[in-house]
């Protein structure tokens, strides 16, 4: 028994799309039956023979997936790559069925997680195919590969765990009676390693004391930050000052570098993190900067002498550090230094003295106070007379 395709290529192509309608010719009766499948009896010889051009057009357009012939001993494909002669011949060992699916596609594939690159070391693939038939004689099953290695069982959903950093490729195709569909392929990158980051103060504070930058040091204070990630590269650097975001001028990927500056009196708790393209966040790089550029405010309000001509001076000072009062011959510090008085500041009023006795004459006094950062506050001169 033989059948042939009698329609022209133009009959099978409409509006640029394949419109296959196989017609089977029954030589015994001459009856033409337009149907996709045709059963044949035991012992029948099934022959499909077409011109190379005709088959090439149908294969290229996806009009035929495979030829199926029941329980025959071997299956050959109508696809030109599998059968250069573009023919199919088989002797059935039982009842046979020749089938012509009309689409040529890969299984439908969905992936979780969808991010690519991803920091997840687990990937799940869900797949299906409208042509899938598990029952005999089709015996449909899927074939999964990960990085070129077949992985069994291959059932949907298929989950892989413990994936190493790097690029991975998953593919799945439907094998049905020897016919292999196109493969659905997904390539992605796993990066589960955190970036590294460093934070460096690039403006030195050489005048301040107690770990401070003071009024004699440059302003603002500059910092540089550098982050690296060998996997997917660093996408962003984020820095905060006492928990509030600050602007970082940054560029590059591996390394990604940036700069920012800090000003304003107070303690600045700085923290910077780097995030790579896969969403991994680095351990924070931190630094503490103390700035005090404000000098103490010191005044001398009065200077008096007692009966022994010993001077005492009083005033105000904003810090709790030592207040030093220097007494000079002459008005407004015009003469030589004759004695120095000291006292501990209270952050408000102070009194320094009494000092040692002074000869009669004109004198002047000036108070200073140095804060913890090394800033010096100086009063105006206070003139007084000893008689």
Q: Sheet with the most strands?
A: 5 strands, antiparallel
| Molecular shape | rod-shaped
Class per helix and strand makeup: mainly beta
Q: What's the CATH topology label of the largest domain?
A: Immunoglobulin-like
Strand content: over 45%
Mean pLDDT: 79
Span between N and C termini?
146 Å
How many strands?
A: 33
CATH hierarchy: architecture of the largest domain: Sandwich
- Taking pLDDT < 50 over at least 5 consecutive residues as the criterion, the unreliable ranges are 1-103
CATH superfamily of the largest domain: Immunoglobulins
Helix count, DSSP H or I runs of 4 or more residues: 2
Query: CATH class of the largest domain, please?
Result: Mainly Beta
Count of all domains = 4
User: Which range best describes the helical content: under 10%, 10-25%, 25-40%, 40-55%, 55-70% or over 70%?
Assistant: under 10%
